[in-house]
Amino acid sequence: MFLGMMSMDYVEVKKWFYQVGAGLIELIYPATKECPVCRQEPCYRQGIGRSCFQKIGLIIPPICRKCGRPLRLKVEDDDTCRQCSEHQYYFSKARAVGLYEGALREYLSELKYRYRPDLGEALGRLLVEWVRLDREYQKNDLIVPIPIHRQKLELRGYNQAELLANPLQRYLGIKLRSDIIVRDKLTESQNSLSKDKRFSNIAGAFRVVNTQGLSGASVLLVDDILTTGATASEAARLLLRAGALKVKVLTLAVGVIDTTWVEN
Questions:
Q1: Which residues make Cβ contacts (< 8 Å) with residue 147, sequence separation at least 6?
Q2: Full domain range(s) for residue 180
Q3: pLDDT tens, 45-77?
Q4: Per the structure, how many domains does the chain have?
Q5: What's the pTM?
Q6: How far apart are alpha carbons 34 and 18 in whole angstroms?
Q7: Cβ distance 217 to 60 under 8 Å?
């Protein structure tokens, strides 16, 4: 090797050592990535920047023990929100990182409608940080992202729920299964519908196509937003019917339906 280098002039040798050295430095001390949201600060733990994170309205107690949304209306001194008292949900519990408003709503809008797959990876790191603090959510056998219809997949280029779930898969070290359920029904956007119509809109939207490894499994169902919970519940119903033992839901954001705060 060094005999070959002797035939190189000094400038070439210096350049070669510089390139090798730069490669080693990058390997040992990787360059700090910038925040994919603001492009003005370094990202934190491969996610978003600290100031962009601080703009998110995080979920804090009191919360509904079933769906995880903040309790804003008191329901018979119970720790269940009105929505969960009025509807049957097939998931055992659902939790979210932040409120679907303000900055987090803008971040998710960028991810879903402006072709920002890089945001999926960065925002997915928030799910990882949340799971670090919850031992129960670390105990799963499979991760299943909520599927989107093939037409939306072709138009968007990716399933945002799957992008969010990828960092979780690496952290938990369990299988991510996008081949268990598919979305056959091209439904209206849930955002444009009333609470009651969302449940009828999503009925029959999903279909189980592969049950391998599902029997007796504890499934973590991942999506970007939980509003009424209709979509997550319908997917959970099919997973349970196909053999899953339990289905928990984790989303990046949750919509608050009630409008009056609990007096505590």
A1: 159, 161, 178, 181, 182, 183, 206
A2: 58-254
A3: 889 999 999 999 999 889 999 999 998 655 556
A4: 2
A5: 0.83
A6: 25
A7: no
